[in-house]
């Protein structure tokens, strides 16, 4: 009886510590944001500094609402960037997952196409900008193409790794039950590799968001990257910082969106952070 009481006391003590720990984890993000804002205020309080203050950035946001740039407000420029990213991501996921499965499952395809992909993989996405610009100009298609190239590589790499590293025990079980090659691929290998595939999707989303901003900074008339260039050229530093803040917020929201999608498709995957 006494031992049971001790176990109950230990359990309740553990539960209290766990509750306290969870509360601390919920408060820590708020504290980190407050510290960041405090550093921002401190950095902008120096009269000799050209770093814009929170008030100046807010005023620039209000001004942008009343006086759009190139006919677009802040949300319009964000949506312009997101449209390019969504189109490129859809294409890169479809082609990247298919190609990754091909070279991960088929040894002949991997022997023929693997080295070519490895060579192109080593080329940074922005290195394609001069060629893409020379071939297609500076319209919408080149920007989407550059984002597609940047988002394709992580999907292919992770899908290939997931398919080629399927546990041998799973395949042996399929062999025991007389599964054919198609069943082994679609009912065993691909479901087993979903975690790796979603890791590639997460990486490609962040890569695509970064690449589109760089592409817009190199040439464009809309988008968040364009706002940074516009602010830099005109000495409008609050506009630059406002665009940077929007980049961080949208990137965080995209990460949450992919996390929710992963939880729907892979409910067995539990992730406590984005």
TrEMBL record:
This protein's UniProt keywords: Cell membrane, Membrane, Transmembrane, Transmembrane helix, Transport
Major localization listed first in the record, in broad terms: membrane
Ranges for domain ABC transmembrane type-1: 78-262
Source superkingdom: Bacteria
Compartment(s): Cell membrane
TM region positions: 24-43, 85-105, 112-138, 144-163, 207-229, 241-261
Record's bilayer topology term: Multi-pass membrane protein
A Pfam cross-reference name: BPD_transp_1
PANTHER family assigned to the protein according to its UniProt record, in alphabetical order: ABC TRANSPORTER PERMEASE PROTEIN MJ0413-RELATED, ALKANE SULFONATE ABC TRANSPORTER-RELATED, MEMBRANE SUBUNIT
Sequence similarity: Belongs to the binding-protein-dependent transport system permease family.
Protein name: ABC-type nitrate/sulfonate/bicarbonate transport system permease component
